[in-house]
Known about the structure:
It contains nine helices and eight strands. By secondary structure, it is an alpha/beta fold.
Amino acid sequence: MAEPILPPLKPIPMKDRISVLFLEKGNLDVLDGAFVVVDKEGVRTHIPVGGVACLMLEPGTRVSHAAVTLASRVGCLLVWVGDGGVRLYASGQPGGARADRLLYQAKLALDDTARLKVVRKMYALRFKEEAPARRSVAQLRGIEGVRVRKMYGLLAKQYGVPWKNRNYDHTKWESGDVPNRCLSSATACLYGICEAAILAAGYAPAVGFIHTGKPQSFVYDIADIFKFDTVVPVAFRIAAKKPHDPEREVRLACRDAFRKTRLLRRIIPMIEEVLSAGGLKIEKPPEESVAPAIPNKERMGDAGHRG
């Protein structure tokens, strides 16, 4: 059977998209050409998938083949998460990494000198000051950990939240205290849109510089630059209110914070700034390399197949 002729795609630039939407208890499908969620009563809720950076799919969600296909065509990242977005099980990869950028990222990560320069740049951007001289990556990671713990304590004191330490068990979610549950929900939102931006720019989430050895190592690297300017204060503010459903309150507040800080406009340029600090050049892609999955006829301001 012949495939239908689809109109040319006009992807919305990442910087102009809604950051993240959470879906639960419904069937994600394509009906009459539209991306919809159908609940048990048969009620359809339209989702502007081309204008969303990341869809978080919670338990109770089913996804059709047509929905996954459409999401990949318009460059919307699908992430399968636990209840409240507190655990990441799997994620899609619309378009895949670009060979030239993936090789560039890998060279930086494998070159000890270049990697240290990238890590020092991340440190400077995160703490608004230069990293201590003559320190290794491992030493800077240790210094960073101490500073982060102090920042958690200061924010908890600022918002009047009882605080011991950052500690939670994802297998026993309800056993965690409210501040830790709020922080986990908040960082899950941030990780989702950072991974969407990394994939949009053609890089690999697994090839990190400070964090290593995990599928989202580079996601954690980039998210940490923005964490204390966005989601961590939100988490402590919500925890101080002691709401009935803190995870939901945090998700809504993070969405508003992302919009207010125009975070999606900042992530991809920040990725480029961080990697360029390594001092290596991006090699021109070979003639046989595969083009981006969603090529842009005109440059729209961001790297990658999503504009």
